[in-house]
Amino acid sequence: MALRVARKLAGLVATLLATSFIIFGAAYAAPGDPVTFLAGGKENLTPEYLAAVRAQYHLDDPFSVQYGRWLWDALNGDLGRSFQYNDEVLDLLAARLPTTLGLVAYATVLFVVIGVALGVLAAVRGGRTDSTVVAGTTFATSVPPFVAATALISVFGVQLGWFPVAGGGSFTHLTLPAITLALGAVAIISRVTRQAMVEQRELDHVTVARASGLAERLIVVRHVFRGALGPVVTMCGLVSAGMLAGTVTVETVFGLSGIGSLLVGAINTHDFPVTQAVLLLMVVAYITVTTLVELAQPLIDPRARIERSRA
Fold first, then answer.
1. Sorted alphabetically, which PANTHER family does this protein's record hold (predicted)?
2. If both were cysteines, with which of 21, 137, 278, 311 could 263 make a disulfide (CB 3.0 to 4.6 Å apart)?
3. Is the pTM of this model over 0.85?
């Protein structure tokens, strides 16, 4: 077990290093000269002034040296200074991250509760209920987030006036954005839950439990649903980890001051330090959560532990 954890952590570190290199290189491969933005768009820039700006930000150094300096500073908590806001990037992230984390947590609760409930209902009832759940989740998956956001704003924000439609970070402000973010995830989790439970119902131990006269409700809870928890929990973790990237569209549409909208503004203004920091944060969060989910898989599903021990 300890060796497996060590291997996973080593793989995590290697993946993060490779990703950080790609992020740093992609930002500086973008069109435009960073010096132009660092100079504040001033006109009639002299070669001496441009040279001073390059020297100040070490832009004349080789790419490998710039990457090494940026990575070392990032590991020490220094993510640079925003070109646009002239503020520390770490402070910008600290101010905006709570809104994004609250949105992701709210959406996670919604898609886990609703998705698992729909999947269980479809697997247990079958027939028309199953078809209805599958059709409804298919429709939810096909609706783009900005279309769903527009519809929710129009109905529940403007016409009914139940929820505010922009800004803020309170529970009511996050409700419509969280629903928008959770729609596609509900479809994924409900289908995974349904499929996992259908497979569990065909196993021998479930057949034996049913033949012994155990109540169907207890069979579903003790054997079918419990056996299906492994893939369901794994998929919930993966979907939740990927939601940070999904907040870009949702936060922009609803005017939330999170890291998603911060990333959009940074890209539009060529604010390289902010762009790099936000992308790195999203990747680190995704890789960390997926690694933790994989490590926890044997604890959730004993069959995975047996398979790994055999391997």
1. DIPEPTIDE TRANSPORT SYSTEM PERMEASE PROTEIN DPPB-RELATED
2. 278
3. no
